[in-house]
Amino acid sequence: MSKSTNAAPIPEEAPPQSATNVKNWREIVRRYQDPCLRRASWQIVNSIGPYLLLWYLLYLTRGQAWWITGALAVLAGLFLVRIFIIFHDCGHGSFFRSKRANDILGIITGILTLTPYHHWRWEHAVHHAGAGHLERRGRGDIWTLTVDEYNNAPKWKRAAYHFVRHPLVIIGLLPFTLFVIAHRIPAAEASKRDRASVHWTNLALLAIAAGMGLLFGLVPFLLIQLVIIMIGGGLGVWLFYVQHQFEDVYWETGEKWDFAAAALEGSSYYKLPRVLQWFSGNIGFHHIHHLSSRIPNYHLERAHHSEPLFQSVKPITLLGSLKTLNFRLWDPERRKLVGFRQAREKRKRVAQRDSGLAS
Question: Looking at 85-184, which runs of residues are DSSP E strands?
Answer without folding.
Answer: 145-146
